[in-house]
Specification:
mainly beta, 16-stranded antiparallel sheet, 16 strands
């Protein structure tokens, strides 16, 4: 749920074509640049020089281009594929200080309305960064894969995020999320790569709960109420704090209008979440300086083949993380498709 600048140049991204099997009615983000990212890059680059050039290439999965049909679809209720597979027994909001692996089960499912973990769900947000009189545009694609990995004693599902500039993937990341039995979504790790000309450049973010002092944080509460505060992530480099700012806040984006949940992240950024969909918009909580915004323009349900390709990218990145970020990922369990 973090954000950062992604303006590299990656591989060409072909049209969606047959990869999308159906549109779904409303069913996570640019990375935040870490203050110590440059130090991590130096370490990664040094390791790369000693080990020889990396063969990792930028991911080249299909891109769901927004269409008038997608933006104006009249379907108002979830499809059969987005119907919750299980209901939380009781909506008890998570206490980020009390993480217990015994409270977790299958990470895949969608009892959390504001962030359903339904494999094959893919969202597309149009983003822009305004710097002075210049407005730089890009797109952010988020896919819930069916890839899982054990982290800190619980099974997580991998969420693949891709930042696309001029049709090319310049940055890709995977986030490791777990869902407890009450429907809270927990954040247990992240790994981010930059690409230039279709080739791997650097890993700029790598952490896993239980490694090097990192602790699980709360990604999304099961029953958010205004004023609730929690820690989203904590590692040796940073702590991200969030607060529920508004519930049932009307928010319109190109895809449709929502009674949204508004979260204030680290005091600097508002993030909006739509019921049954997830992340629908981002806005700054400040004036002047660099202004970054995002709006949901499309939601699709990938075909079996499309999901397989996106999951393959997540598996490839997790494998590469164990090479490029050995101190964090080196001894972690490999990810696998569920």
């Amino acid at each position: 749920m973090s954000n950062n600048s992604r303006h590299g140049h990656g591989s060409e991204d072909p049209a969606l074509g047959v990869m999308v099997s159906e549109m779904v009615a409303p069913v996570r983000f640019r990375r935040k640049v870490l203050a110590v990212a440059s130090a991590f890059i130096v370490v990664s680059a040094t390791a790369a020089c000693s080990a020889g050039p990396s063969t990792q290439t930028a991911p080249s999965p299909p891109q769901p281009t927004p269409t008038p049909v997608a933006a104006t679809t009249s379907a108002a209720s979830p499809s059969a594929s987005s119907t919750p597979s299980s209901k939380p027994a009781q909506k008890v909001n998570a206490n980020y200080k009390k993480f217990d692996p015994k409270n977790f089960g299958d990470p895949i499912g969608d009892p959390n309305s504001f962030y359903p973990l339904t494999p094959g769900t893919q969202t597309l947000r149009d983003g822009s960064i305004t710097r002075g009189s210049r407005k730089l545009k890009h797109q952010l694609r988020t896919t819930v894969t069916d890839v899982t990995k054990e982290v800190n004693g619980v099974q997580t599902v991998l969420i693949l995020d891709q930042d696309i500039d001029a049709g090319q993937v310049g940055e890709a990341s995977i986030d490791y999320l777990a869902q407890d039995k009450s429907g809270n979504i927990w954040y247990l790790g992240s790994y981010t790569e930059l690409y230039e000309g279709g080739q791997f450049v650097n890993a700029v973010d790598a952490w896993l709960a239980g490694k090097k002092g990192a602790k699980p944080g709360v990604w999304m509460l099961t029953d958010p109420k205004e004023g609730m505060k929690y820690v989203q992530m904590h590692n040796s480099r940073e702590t991200i704090r969030s607060e529920v700012d508004k519930v049932d806040d009307r928010k319109c984006v190109p895809f449709k209008c929502f009674k949204s949940l508004r979260i204030l992240e680290d005091g600097t950024e508002f993030k909006y979440f739509g019921p049954g969909v997830g992340h629908i918009a981002t806005e700054p909580n400040y004036s002047g300086g660099e202004q970054e915004k995002e709006e949901l323009v499309n939601v699709v349900k990938l075909s079996r083949k499309g999901l397989a390709e996106m999951s393959a990218e997540a598996l490839k990145m997790d494998k590469h993380a164990r090479k490029e970020a050995k101190s964090v990922f080196g001894k972690s369990d490999p990810a696998k498709r569920s």
